[in-house]
Amino acid sequence: MTHAPHRIVVTRRIAEPALALLREVGQVDLPQPDRGLTEAELHEVVAGADALVSTLQDRIDTRVVEAAGPGLRVIATVAVGYDNIDVDAVTGRDVLVTNTPGVLTDATADLTLGLLLAVTRRIGEGERLVREQRPWEFSLDFMLGAGLQGRTFGVVGLGQIGRAAARRAKAFGMEIAYTGRRRAAEEVEAELGARFLPMTELLGSADVVSLHCPLTPQTRHLIDADALAAMKPGAFLLNTTRGAVGDEGALAGALSDGVIAGAGLDVFEEEPHVHPGLLELDNVVLTPHLGSATVETRTEMALLAARNVAAVLTGEPALTPVRTKVAS
Ligand code: GLV
């Protein structure tokens, strides 16, 4: 008796080497055209799947598991963050969830520093001025920004990406402080020369606050109006994690009132919508969720997701499960 091949549903186009790997273990279905699926579309395409390769655009909960039917064994999100997935409920239905930690650390840290330079040195603002052919000439006090050397880079969440961003900031001559649920290992603190501070002290002393914690119920709107008011007036905020770790409305107000000096944002609460108040401001740099967007990194992310699927479908342990064990 021959078994039907595994059905692997991939919600968005992923790098070809990853598709090739998936095709070695099953039949790959990739909905066309390549765009974010509505919940109804997702529920339709997942029917009969043994594995689902998804992205942060897909809302994954038990309805997806039910729509897939009893064969579904693994959901591999091509992302490190998984706030779009109800992991407890899904793993409770014996479906393993995997993500892609590690492979996007450097790319995301690079973009964080890109935003830092762009906002402190007014690169976006300057670029707009040149492109719009507004009048300018060199002068000694023209478009002055803020220097970084000797300033404090405050990391919220010293995980892999937070550490990689801090390493880069240190290379720019910045002092490192951090806050989080727990203290980092001694050797991590020693490598970065990092000081642990409670959240309120970090907000009150850092010249740059860079968000690297995952979005959870505890971190939703962590940077609200009160937190912004607690920051130094000349400070900058960077967000490359999830928009909802900040409160976008409060941030637009704080930036326009000069409560803080500027912000660099790669993520937004309701992507692709951006709070209209932010769009009018020159002291904020806005990028469209590009943290991991390099050819190399997106290929590695897709490959890791594919390897997770291949492992689970061939009875091997997943490489990077979000939780180590499903209920069964
Ligand atoms: C991107 O935002 C990710 O979580 O990988």
Description:
The structure is a single chain. The chain is built from 13 helices and 12 strands. With 328 residues, it is of the alpha/beta class. It has 2 domains: 6-103 and 295-313, 3-Layer(aba) Sandwich (Rossmann fold); 105-286, NAD(P)-binding Rossmann-like Domain (Rossmann fold, 3-Layer(aba) Sandwich). Strands 8-7-6-9-10-11-12 form a 7-stranded parallel β-sheet, sandwiched between helices. A 5-stranded parallel β-sheet has the order 2-1-3-4-5. Strand 7, helix 8 and strand 8 (195-196) form a beta-alpha-beta unit. The longest helix has 19 residues, at 295-313. The protein is elongated and about 75 Å long. It starts with 5 loop residues before the first strand and ends in a 15-residue tail after the last helix. The site of glyoxylic acid has 7 residues, from loops.
CATH class of the largest domain: Alpha Beta
The tally of domains stands at: 2
- Largest sheet: spatial strand order: 8-7-6-9-10-11-12
What is the alpha-carbon Rg in Å?
Answer: 22 Å
Main sheet attributes: strand count, strand direction, barrel closure: 7 strands, parallel
Total number of strands: 12
User: Could you say what the CATH architecture of the largest domain is?
Assistant: 3-Layer(aba) Sandwich
Supply the CATH superfamily name of the largest domain.
NAD(P)-binding Rossmann-like Domain
**Overall average pLDDT:** 97
List the uncertain runs: none
Strand content: 5-15%
The number of distinct helices, counting runs of at least 4 residues, comes to 13
Helix-strand topology string: EHEHEHEHEHHEHEHEHEHEHEHEH
Estimate percent helicity.
25-40%
Listed once per kind, the bound small molecules are: glyoxylic acid
Note the gap between the termini: 27 Å
Q: Class by helix and strand content? A: alpha/beta
* CATH-defined fold name of the largest domain: Rossmann fold
Gross morphology: elongated
